[in-house]
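Hi all, a correction to my earlier message: I attached the wrong file for Lysozyme like 4. Here's the right sequence:
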Amino acid sequence: MKASMFLSLIGYLVVPSGAAILGRCKVAKKLYEGGLDYFEGYSLENWVCLAYFESKFNPTAIYENLPGGYTGYGLFQIRSHEWCDKGKNRCHMSCSALLNPNLKKTIECAKRIVKGKDGMGEWPSWSLNCRFADNLARWLDGCRL
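and the right structure:
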């Protein structure tokens, strides 16, 4: 009896919450359609790589970075303290708008971020995982844009 109740409880805890994880090619297509391919000189492969390392292609991801004092929102984990309405609001939008799987607001905000002095370097994960990667082309392998 205890074992079945325990397994039932575990089942409730691991059931997906309806998170809309997107496939790699779907992300690539949406970013391409949103005009990110070579925006400010960064290839589409860079953007797809960034999306993977920031959210594993989850446009509804929210990550609280307590040591850093911010929360990351959406596909690119855009930081609340600088870019959306829980901070300086440089993108002029609500943080919740960055969680929409259509990615329109996310792309709009990412364009604003990358126009800054650090470019994609604003995202440490890009600098660490994508910036000097010699295999970026793999992020678009098999994708029809």
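Sorry for the mix-up. The CA atoms of residues 60 and 99 lie 4 Å apart.
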